[in-house]
Amino acid sequence: MFAIAIVSVFFWAPSDADQGLSQRIFYFHVPIALTGYACFGWGAWKALRHLWKDDPNADLESYVAIHQGVIFGSLTLITGSIWAKISWGVWWVWSDDQLVLFLVLFLFYCAYFMLRYSVDPGPQRANLSAVYALFGVVLIPVSFLAIRLSHSFIHPVVFTRSGAQMTGTMLTTFCICLAAMLVLFVTLYQLELAGKRLDTRIRELKELLT
Amino acid sequence: MRYLSDVAALTRKDLLLELRAKETIPAMLLFVLSALTIFHFAIPRGSSDVAALGLLWVAIVFTSLLGLTRAFVPEREQGLMDALVLAPCDRSTIWLGKTIAVIAFLGIAEVVALPAFTLFFSGLTLKTVAAVALADIGIAAVGTLTGAMAVAGRARELIQPLLFLPLSIPVIVGGIGASATAGPKFLLFLALYDTVFVLLSWAAFDFVAAEA
């Protein structure tokens, strides 16, 4: 899946008339960012499940999703920074809403880890993490609104109400990349979850032995 | 009705504690005055009034942080939290009582801070004052919840600013926007923030305050 995405980005999609080759980073940057949102959303959904239905697996699943989200978020900041350097000539621009929003979210979710690791494992930790994760998804639209209110808009708005402003091949490439990123997220998510569950199981067995 | 009298009793407890101990409010007052003095030297001569207004908001957020960090300390030191959780009242009353007390502390700090700001820097519009009042509600609501979270962990006070500051960024944006631009757009935004986060914190506190 990822191979198809890379091939189509470099060989199939037409170069942007205005930005040339550098525009191709768009096919990575935007899907990574969208996948990051998906991770945070999924994490919050699992957090809600934990608080509401008291689902015993939800806490770990929520944590793993947010962990992946922070990784995708950092990648967004890095790729966004590279793209900004190439197309605007600077590494960082405060006038770009999305980039600032990701910085805010990055700080927020780093605090999530601080919180999680300062509390001893148990139901209390699960509850606190879940509440904080829920605050996160509420913070996303609120900060987005705040940042949009506070700045002018530099980012090219690609998805408008009248539909995507891209040619057919570009849109297809974009969708392939988005699908590839989501598949990557699901794979990593399953992998980390399996690892964590194995870890817990081993600990339990160890305790049984001693 | 029961609910309201519970909240009133808890708020009274916090205000009485402060009245007797006299710890938080003098600290907040001194802090905000020192911060404003530092800002006087931090911004070069000839900077615009808007820059000074920005610093006013920084001072407000950090002063509130000082108060919020202390908010759950008495509960922790005396082991009061367990008793409160066991008390036959809705747990969200603990949050609401504490939030109202924090708003009162913040209000007292700002009664000194805002005139001091006009004295040191520039005059304030009525809109800025309204924005400060709206921001207080949001800051107190969110900060009380993160404060309760922070005392549950090992890191305690250390973690409170980390939890609170990312959540306070929209308040800063709304506050500075309301001070610096015309129109009620930013005041409405602050009101929206208050509504959303007050409801969320109120609903979520049940899960945060558990028996230790």
Automatic annotation (TrEMBL), chain A:
Compartmental location: Membrane
Domain (Cytochrome c assembly protein) ranges: 2-155
A cellular component annotation (GO) from this entry: plasma membrane
Keyword Transcription in record: no
Keyword Cytoplasm: no
Pfam families per record: Cytochrom_C_asm (PF01578)
Bilayer topology annotation: Multi-pass membrane protein
Protein keywords: Cytochrome c-type biogenesis, Membrane, Transmembrane, Transmembrane helix
Biological process, per Gene Ontology: cytochrome complex assembly
GO-annotated molecular function: heme binding; heme transmembrane transporter activity
Transmembrane intervals: 27-48, 69-94, 100-119, 131-150, 170-191
Family: Belongs to the CcmC/CycZ/HelC family.
Name of the molecule in the record: Unannotated protein
Source organism of the structure: freshwater metagenome
UniProtKB/TrEMBL annotation, chain B:
Subcellular location: Membrane
Biological processes annotated in GO: cytochrome c biosynthetic process; cytochrome complex assembly
A Pfam family reported for this protein in Swiss-Prot or TrEMBL: CcmB
Keyword Cytoplasm attached: no
Residue spans crossing the bilayer: 25-43, 50-73, 93-117, 129-152, 158-179, 186-205
GO MF annotation: an example: heme transmembrane transporter activity
UniProt entry tagged with the keyword Transmembrane: yes
Keyword tags: Cytochrome c-type biogenesis, Membrane, Transmembrane, Transmembrane helix, Transport
Membrane topology: Multi-pass membrane protein
InterPro entries from the UniProt entry: Cyt_c_biogenesis_CcmB
GO cellular component, one term: plasma membrane
Similarity section: Belongs to the CcmB/CycW/HelB family.
Name of this chain's protein: Unannotated protein
Lineage start: unclassified sequences, metagenomes, ecological metagenomes
